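Entries read sequence, tokenised fold; example below:

***
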Amino acid sequence: MKALNRFSWCGTMVLLALSTGCSNGQSLSEKYPTQWKTCNALFGAKNMESLQSVLDSSDLKFSNSALSVDQLKKGLTQEAIDPYDELRGFKEYETCGLSGNGRFTAMARWAADSLKSVQTNTERWQRATADVYVADPSGVGGDIDLVFRCAIKGAGRQAQVLLEARVSAPDSPRVSAAFHQQLAVKLARTLRDELSCTNKPDIPHGLEVDG
């Protein structure tokens, strides 16, 4: 199986000013204040500037519903603490979505797969660290899907210990595989820190995996 290569954090991209305008004259931060704040918090302001420059168009907009970081944290934490509802399953949270000259989406959720199934399904999942597994994106343009162990304080009988972060490949030929991976890693590391995973999972800066 083809392994994901360690990426470089270098490379130049055209940055978009924070005052990026929408078609009605409002900036993105004015028109979508919650989405703007959440995406910047989860991915970092510089990454979001680069992403916006790639997707820039006259109708650039956030496509996801308003979801604050606090709402995301509370939702994921409550799901970990509450008894698992087999009929409902785990909720998928769309953390960030942008559309313009291409589309970008990212999500977070408690993984449907158990730790055991991930460890044994080596055709799909590759181990990056003792805590992190990465799904093979299956070719250029595939989503980056990774899971990592995240124990929540107060969740004595936590139904699932694997937190999943998935980042779509931004639909633009100007987006490099390195930048795509950078976005996925940043999301996972931010989620780990925001949720204060008590097991302190080791999420590497790169996605080099065990062969």
